[in-house]
Amino acid sequence: MDTRRDFLQKLGISSLVLPFMPLSGLATTKTEKLYDGPVLRVAIMGLGGYGTRVAEAMKSCVKAKLVGVISGTPSKIKDWQAKYSIPEKNCYNYENFDEIKNNPDIDAIYVITPNALHYDQVIRVAKAGKHVICEKPMAVNAKEGQEMIDACKKANVKLLVGYRMHFEPKTLEVIRLRNAGEFGKIMFFQGQCGFKIGDPAQWRLNKKLAGGGAMMDIGIYAINGSRYMVGEEPVWVTAQETKTNPQIFKEGVDETIQFQMGFPSGAVASYLSSYNINYLDRFYLVGEKGFAEMQPSTGYGPIKGRTHKGELTQPHITHQTVQMEEMAGIILEGKEPIVPVNGEEALKDLKIIDAIYLAAKTGKKIPLKL
Ligand code: NAD
Questions:
Q1: I need a labelling partner for 168 at 20 to 30 A (CA). Which of 21, 99, 337, 370 fits?
Q2: What are the CA-CA distances from residue 267 to residues 79, 189, 229, 240, 354 (Å)?
Q3: Residue-level pLDDT at 33
Q4: Is 221 a known active-site residue?
Q5: Which of the residues 119, 163, 221, 284 is marked catalytic?
Q6: Closest ligand 1 atom to the C-alpha of 319?
Q7: Count of beta carbons in the 10 Å neighbourhood of residue 311
Q8: Per-residue pLDDT, 230
Q9: Which CATH superfamily is domain 4-162 in?
Q10: Separation between Cα atoms, residue 319 and residue 91, nearest integer Å
Q11: What is the block-wise mean pLDDT of the chain (370 residues), using blocks of 10 residues?
């Protein structure tokens, strides 16, 4: 058992993820499953595509457990109750979920609904006195993001955002190498994030629910990724928008935006965010002494990457499982993640998105103060 744990610790992965990591050639013992520490009891709000993925991933968690649901669709609640053994008393809808404040069996709510709904829902959860995990983008602009942070502070609850890449082993290895000076002075980052969006009727293409277009959904990965890959906060941004199909990408819903940012050290970055180009999932970091290339860089994995020294070989673990395990540690034990996942971290991305939209509209270089 110790050998296995030591091995994982060398990989930089919490020993608490041991039970769901099949490592061939290493003995597994039942004793590893005997976790008797605190468990974060989570209710998921929004039982759609990503909510389902998180629920499935949580089956392998030992520190976090799915115990409740909030949904507007009674039939979905019934299905989830049966599938995840959720008691009736932990089921709510969008009208009555403020009553969660009287439920001592739920610690945190994970908000996984369309982007523009996060603001109101997170504030209501905070008022109910429960910790909040919110999907990205945390809000649809920085003003709302700040108000969400303030509401959670006032209610004395934690606000975390679903930045699953902040716990991904190959990503963390690149950050470790950069901090150790392996790439030398960082000079350049390139981030490309996009896919061809389908059904024109979906909420992702409705400004009222999505708050924008590709930038809100997928471009945010390139923005956030550059911040953790370069290891600095950007100080200016320029942007150019291209729209080939105004029928699908209506006013306020961006199709493709190229943008550029500059960092205090002099490092520069260029990005592409698109709902009209497939196979865009690539990060490239260049320093004076070396480079890191990740492709895919932010998909569900396995993430693939190499540096000037060779392939990155850290193991793939289901992102959402590790995220929930680590978030339980942050909420219950005050653990500090290597890259923050709190509201303040998400607010920086929202300030950048506000500035990108302004830069694309005005054609001006916009200074950033994060
Ligand atoms: P989805 O459409 O699959 O699910 C959204 C859910 O919200 C549905 O169950 C829907 O019924 C519910 N909902 C509640 N009120 C609604 C309303 N007024 N209109 C439409 N739906 C409503 O979407 P999704 O892919 O699960 O995305 C949800 C959130 O998760 C988004 O913020 C998205 O950015 C985020 N997300 C994050 C990741 C990630 O990797 N971190 C991946 C996918 C989605």
A1: 370
A2: 50, 8, 11, 20, 22
A3: 59
A4: yes
A5: 221
A6: 40
A7: 9
A8: 98
A9: NAD(P)-binding Rossmann-like Domain (3.40.50.720)
A10: 26
A11: 36 42 39 80 98 98 98 98 98 98 98 99 98 98 98 98 98 98 98 97 98 98 98 98 97 98 98 98 98 98 97 98 98 98 98 98 98
- Whole-model pTM: value is 0.93
The residue to mutate among 79, 135, 163, having the most atoms of ligand 1 within 8 angstroms of its beta carbon, is: 135
3-class secondary-structure state, position 80: helix
Which fold, 165-315+343-367? Answer: Dihydrodipicolinate Reductase; domain 2 (3.30.360)
Contact 38/64 with Cβ under 8 angstroms?
A: no
Written as six digits, the tokens of 146 are 């700040």
The span from the CA of 360 to the CA of 259, in Å, is 8
Span from the CA of 113 to the centroid of ligand 1 (angstroms) = 4
- Residues within a 6 A CB radius of ligand 1: 46-51, 72, 112-115, 117, 135-136, 162, 164, 203, 209, 217
Pairing state between β 186-194 and 268-274:
parallel
